[in-house]
């Protein structure tokens, strides 16, 4: 598309969304991708001979992106009803560099960010969303935490934070194992790594081709997540890293079969009992 058309396209989409919002509707506006829009802004800025900023983008790139995202939200209309616009923008950073100006400016404006990971996609871990680079700042809002405590589970936000810490410790342990080798680190490092793998395989991965795992109700998510967290909190006893690896691989297999089982069925409860017995046999 011409540069001017690319630059104006997102504004056109948002304006149409605002029109329907004024009618009392809930509107979802999706832009793919805002990086192309920012590139058009850069070309327009260069042709106007404006002072360039980082990577030749306009000096006010961050303000432009923030002002655009600020147009989304909930409004109360004159007739007492409400309408809303939810904006979902995708960023396509060159080479997957999340430190480039468009991504940085978008992360400042948006309060929720999903970072797609090429390494997770290559290792067939779907959905390929990086659990450490992704975040939601909405969890910091007191009203959101209160809603989750009342409608989902008490201390749900704290549990999410704990899960992210487990993933971070597992990544750090894996880095040490890759540098020093399996025998070069204590068994505790292998245990930390495999606990993060357990959380990753059971909670963060999903099989869209399975009728049961493709759609998981919130009640089931709570039970499965709390089961995994409970295991990650326990001190387990292993003689060496090989025993640790075998234990967690068998445990992940049981949990995955559990994910494929009908909720609260006899098969589901049977796998839960096997998991409990396995964990109890390794308690320190």
Question: How would you describe this protein?
Answer:
The structure is a single chain. This protein has 284 residues and is mainly α. It folds into 2 domains: 108 residues, P-loop containing nucleotide triphosphate hydrolases (Rossmann fold, 3-Layer(aba) Sandwich), CATH 3.40.50; 133 residues, Orthogonal Bundle (Bovine Mitochondrial F1-ATPase, ATP Synthase Beta Chain, Chain D, domain3), CATH 1.10.1140.10. Helix content is 56%, strand content 8%. The protein contains 11 helices and 5 strands; from the N terminus they run αβααββαβαβαααααα. The strands form 2 sheets. The protein has a 3-stranded mixed beta sheet with strand order 1-3-2. A two-stranded antiparallel ribbon has the order 4-5. The chain is globular, with a radius of gyration of 23 Å. The N and C termini lie far apart (64 Å). The mean pLDDT is 93.
Order of helices and strands: HEHHEEHEHEHHHHHH
Helix content: 55-70%
Can you list the strand order of the major beta sheet? 1-3-2
The name of the CATH superfamily of the largest domain reads Bovine Mitochondrial F1-atpase, Atp Synthase Beta Chain, Chain D, domain 3
Mind telling me the C-alpha Rg?
23 Å
Biggest sheet record:
3 strands, mixed
Q: What would you call the shape?
A: globular
Give a count of the beta strands, DSSP E runs of length 2 or more: 5
The CATH topology name of the largest domain reads: Bovine Mitochondrial F1-ATPase, ATP Synthase Beta Chain, Chain D, domain3
Distance between the termini: 64 Å
**CATH architecture grouping of the largest domain:** Orthogonal Bundle
Low-confidence stretches: none
Q: How many structural units, i.e. domains?
A: 2
State which percent range the strand residues make up. Answer: 5-15%
Overall pLDDT metric? 93
Secondary-structure content class = mainly alpha
DSSP summary: helix tally: 11
Determine and state the CATH class of the largest domain. Mainly Alpha
């Amino acid at each position: 598309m011409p540069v001017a058309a690319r630059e104006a396209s997102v504004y056109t989409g948002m304006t149409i969304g605002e029109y329907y919002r004024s009618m009392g509707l809930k509107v979802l506006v999706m832009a793919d991708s805002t990086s192309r829009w920012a590139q058009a802004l850069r070309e327009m800025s260069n042709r106007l001979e404006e002072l360039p900023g980082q990577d030749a983008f306009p000096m006010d790139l961050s303000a432009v992106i923030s002002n655009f995202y600020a147009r989304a939200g909930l409004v109360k209309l004159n007739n007492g009803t409400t309408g809303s616009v939810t904006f979902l923008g995708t960023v396509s950073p060159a080479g997957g560099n999340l430190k480039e100006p468009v991504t940085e400016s978008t992360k400042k404006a948006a309060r929720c960010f999903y970072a797609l990971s090429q390494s997770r996609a290559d290792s067939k871990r779907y959905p390929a969303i990086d659990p450490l680079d992704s975040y939601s700042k909405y969890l910091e809002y007191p009203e959101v935490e209160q809603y989750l405590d009342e409608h989902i589970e008490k201390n749900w936000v704290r549990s999410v934070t704990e899960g992210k810490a487990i993933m971070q410790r597992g990544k750090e342990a894996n880095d040490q194992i890759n540098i020093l080798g399996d025998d070069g680190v204590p068994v505790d490092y292998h245990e930390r790594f495999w606990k993060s793998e357990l959380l990753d395989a059971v909670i963060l991965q999903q099989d869209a081709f399975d009728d049961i795992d493709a759609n998981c109700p919130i009640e089931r998510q709570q039970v499965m997540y709390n089961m995994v967290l409970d295991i990650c909190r326990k001190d387990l006893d292993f003689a060496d890293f090989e025993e640790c690896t075998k234990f967690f691989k068998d445990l992940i297999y049981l949990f995955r079969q559990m994910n494929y089982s009908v909720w609260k069925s006899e098969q589901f409860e049977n796998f839960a009992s096997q998991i409990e017995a396995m964990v109890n046999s390794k308690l320190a």
